[in-house]
Amino acid sequence: MSPLWQVFRWIWRDQRPAMLRGALLGVAVLLAGVALLGLSGWFITAAAAAGLAGVGASFDVFRPSASVRFLALGRTAARYGERVLTHDATLRAFAALRVRLLQGLTRAPYDRLVRLRGPQMLNRLTADIDALDGLPLRLVLPLIAGIATQLLSFAVIWALAGLAIAATLAVGFIGGGAVVLIWAGRAGLAPSRRAELATQAFRSRFIDLVQARGDLAIYGQLAAQQDAVLAADLRRQTARLAQDRVERRAGFALSCLGTGLAAAALALGMALAQSGQLSPALAAMGFFAALALSETAAPLRRAVAELGRMTLAARRVMQGLSAPALPTGQNHTATLLRFDAVTHQRGAARPSLPALSFSLNPGETLALIGPSGAGKSTALLLAAGLLHPTSGAIWLGDQPLSDWDEPALRAQLTLVPQRAALMAGSIRQALSLAAPDASDATLWAALQAVALDDVIRAKGGLDAELGPRGAGLSGGEARRLCLARALLRRPAILLLDEPTEGLDTATAQLVLHGIRQHLPQAAILTASHRPVELDWADFTLRLP
After folding, report:
1. CA 312, CA 334: separation in Å to the nearest integer?
2. pLDDT by residue (tens digit) across 49-64?
3. Are 420 and 479 in contact (CB under 8 A)?
4. Beta-carbon neighbour count of residue 109 at 10 Å?
5. SS3 for 515?
6. What pLDDT, on a 0 to 100 scale, did the predictor assign at position 323?
7. H or E segment to which residue 88 belongs
8. Three-class DSSP category at 151
9. How, if at all, do strands 493-497 and 523-527 pair?
């Protein structure tokens, strides 16, 4: 099943009543347009014929003119209702789709999630969803309404003007329109894909330019990044121009098709009228109905020109939605952490972690040591359940780590990685991420444990504001704030990746001593290389 069809099925299931009513109103709009022009053509011709025949005084002009007004007003009302229903349903469906996509992305495996940058995540949630709004509004629903209108019009025109005119219009519009739209879809596939890829590249590079402008300026790469942004924008505009050319050519072809079929209907009607098989008024009705039926295919040209863009977006959205659900299990109590011959390997490369075995009991501190690339950080990610071992088993308490319920696991275990993140907001908000209901006294106790309380007081207290990524704190201060946040979880097992990196020796000793005092019964596993951390640990284990 194609990703586009999967996305539309999801939208249809989520907003079926509104979509169905919108589709029916779309058919009503098109039928009202056909009836309006057809009746107008019949009325004008019939009134003229009555005048020429000298019976104009007895010709009924009131009911046809009233019908014309009714159709005009009804068409306007139906169009308004169709737009309100379909746009409202689409916006509601896409709002729910964004939530599901965000949930799917956050449930993705850690090794996949770390490869996504912030701009890529933003594109997933905004650009991809925005690219799909034309799927129901400009493609599927107009296509359904157009085919239904063509079939119903065929039956009515056959009954009133004969099979020849009805078949000519139906075959011409359905067959000819399909040829033009298929050509436009194929011709627009490559430029619409290029436009979408260039748009995402432009957004990603522009966000990188804004976020990393300081580093880029320091290393003399600011102008190069600006050129990369402008180059992506140029590719985007070039691809969009090519896509617009395809759309204009498709529109021109559809206009020629509609004009040709209207002329054919007029010629057939004149021939039938001259032979006496059809009245001039009904012949004119067929001609004007042909003009109105052009509206059934014209709105589709934009959608088929964007098929490449929508297909790419649908594929990425479905990948995000297909992420596995969080594992479920039982709520246990962590009493120890044990690795039994645990290994981890990515692809065909050498193992990122050779066979590792150890046991860590409450109140103990174990420091993993070894050269860069030996697998220290990998071991912490495995212990945190963010990676899965290639072989061996990890035990938390008396149960395998994989058997733990996700919320229960996070309540027992906390990881502070090398690059822990801070967000814009107050110090209080940064700490409350770990303990939303913590009192001010509890927050200050955690800050004191990492020797940061005096620094925060000097900056204005818990309500002092931080900029994006913790701007306003030095690297060491930001590191200690992340450690304080982890302490607020009061985990049974604390995983620390180079916890004192960026701190001087005296401050590092204070922080390590404060961590153990704050969590006297916690089992602490660290990835370390500094002597101050090795002296603090109860045990060390060297990785090859």
Report:
1. 45
2. 777 666 656 667 778 8
3. yes
4. 12
5. helix
6. 57
7. helix 62-106
8. helix
9. parallel
